[in-house]
């Protein structure tokens, strides 16, 4: 184990020397510096980064030990043990505010000093562990919140998709219903007409109902990791989006040359959510670029699925103009968005990255290509 590094702050040079001698008489302890003023103590602490500072409360000069201790603790996170005399009772109240790890009465008893230092070091380590654990927990909570927000934003998009998918069957249903009035007037209603009417109406209603149950199945969270087939999963997401894809006249296709099935292990619905986020982003980029260029030929998204050594690699290639170079390293940050107020939260890519990399052991990154962006999603292949 490394030596415990101690800095002494004491304006009586003889006392300081005496303490140094005692401390270094013990194995495993070393004194990094003896400072005589608060200012010197801060300089030395910054330079030597001792594990602990033994600080005389009453110091000559403009800064007392309490002020120096506070600064050393705040700036460098180094804990302090105060050296006090009996007469310092009042001052100790003030010293308490700096949360010292202990007090030593002057003149110091050697054994007591070493024990106090050891106890203080132990307490300091424990405090640090606790702080680290709390930080980790806070991060976890923040991540959870973001994932929740992303789900909400995905739900909004979902509703948009459902209403797109419903538009056509709703129109058809409207026509079927209106026809019955004409049919009545022209005396066309008979058993055959009624059977047809019910059959046609039910076809549309079933299509609408399938959209909703499809949505529920597609996005309910998975409880456990399982092997799933990637090409089918991607096609499922595109089927789900077909209403939107058609109404935007986007040319969306999946290519997987020479391969019929590729398996990876993970959460299927989270994978779907990632593909969905990337598709939404590409569609948004395409809409924006069309607005800017009034260029009708823009609008293709290709999902290329392939095997690369032992990895499954998906490329989502669009022609939406790509990400401006100066923003490229920010798009995966939470809440980073270039969309108009109210249109994007900026969590899609962040959450996708967490899902792919932290939950499923994969990789998600992007590069700009001619006319657009390509997002890469990679997972280790599962042999089945
Ligand atoms: N395919 C893409 N082409 C061009 N820019 C993109 C593309 N995908 C993402 N971006 C940029 O990255 C930003 C962040 O994307 P992200 O999905 O995290 O958030 P968002 O789409 O803005 O909002 P949200 O997904 O929360 O609704 C976008 O605002 C956009 O500027
Ligand atoms: Mg997005």
From TrEMBL:
Response regulatory domain: residues covered: 5-121
Span of domain Histidine kinase: 161-383
- EC top class, as a word: transferase
Residues in a coiled coil are 119-153
InterPro entries of this UniProt entry? CheY-like_superfamily, HATPase_C_sf, HATPase_dom, His_kinase_dom, HisK_dim/P_sf, Sig_transdc_His_kin-like_C, Sig_transdc_resp-reg_receiver
**Protein origin, superkingdom:** Bacteria
Q: Which UniProt keywords apply?
A: ATP-binding, Coiled coil, Kinase, Nucleotide-binding, Phosphoprotein, Transferase, Two-component regulatory system
Asked if Chloroplast is a keyword of the record, the answer is: no
List the catalytic activities from the record.
ATP + protein L-histidine = ADP + protein N-phospho-L-histidine
Picking any one GO molecular function of the record gives:
protein histidine kinase activity
**The keyword Plastid belongs to this UniProt entry's keyword annotation:** no
- Point out residues bearing the modification 4-aspartylphosphate: 56
Q: What is its EC number?
A: 2.7.13.3
Q: What's the name of the protein?
A: histidine kinase
- The organism encoding this protein is Candidatus Magnetominusculus xianensis
């Amino acid at each position: 184990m490394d030596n415990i590094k101690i800095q002494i702050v004491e304006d009586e040079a003889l006392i300081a020397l005496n303490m140094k001698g005692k401390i270094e008489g013990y194995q495993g302890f070393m004194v990094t510096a003896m400072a005589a003023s608060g200012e010197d103590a801060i300089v030395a602490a910054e330079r030597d980064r001792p594990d602990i500072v033994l600080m005389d409360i009453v110091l000559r000069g403009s800064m007392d030990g309490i002020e120096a201790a506070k600064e050393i603790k705040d700036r460098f996170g180094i804990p302090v043990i105060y050296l006090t005399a009996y007469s310092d009772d009042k001052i100790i109240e003030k010293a308490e505010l700096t949360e010292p790890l202990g007090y030593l009465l002057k003149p110091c008893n050697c054994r007591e000093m070493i024990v106090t230092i050891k106890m203080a070091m132990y307490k300091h380590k424990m405090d640090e562990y606790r702080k680290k654990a709390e930080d980790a927990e806070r991060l976890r909570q923040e991540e959870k919140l973001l994932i929740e927000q992303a789900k909400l934003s995905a739900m909004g998009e979902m509703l948009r998709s459902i209403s797109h998918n419903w538009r056509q069957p709703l129109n058809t249903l409207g026509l079927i219903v209106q026809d019955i009035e004409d049919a009545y007037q022209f005396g066309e209603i008979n058993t055959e007409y009624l059977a047809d009417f019910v059959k046609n109406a039910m076809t549309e209603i079933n299509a609408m109902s399938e959209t909703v149950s499809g949505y529920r199945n597609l996005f309910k969270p998975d409880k456990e990791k399982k092997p799933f087939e990637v090409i089918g999963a991607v096609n499922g997401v595109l089927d789900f989006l077909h209403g939107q894809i058609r109404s935007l006249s986007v040319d969306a296709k999946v290519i997987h040359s020479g391969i019929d099935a590729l398996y990876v292990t993970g959460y299927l619905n989270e994978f779907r959510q990632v593909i969905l986020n990337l598709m939404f982003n590409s569609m948004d980029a395409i809409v924006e670029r069309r607005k800017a260029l009034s260029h009708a030929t823009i609008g293709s998204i290709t999902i290329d699925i392939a095997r690369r050594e032992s990895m499954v690699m998906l490329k989502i290639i669009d022609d939406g103009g790509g990400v401006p170079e100066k923003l490229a390293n920010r798009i995966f940050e939470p809440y980073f968005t270039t969309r108009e107020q109210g249109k994007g939260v900026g969590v899609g890519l962040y959450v996708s990255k967490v899902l792919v990399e932290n939950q499923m052991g994969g990789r998600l990154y992007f590069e700009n290509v001619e006319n657009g962006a390509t997002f890469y999603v990679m997972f280790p292949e599962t042999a089945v």
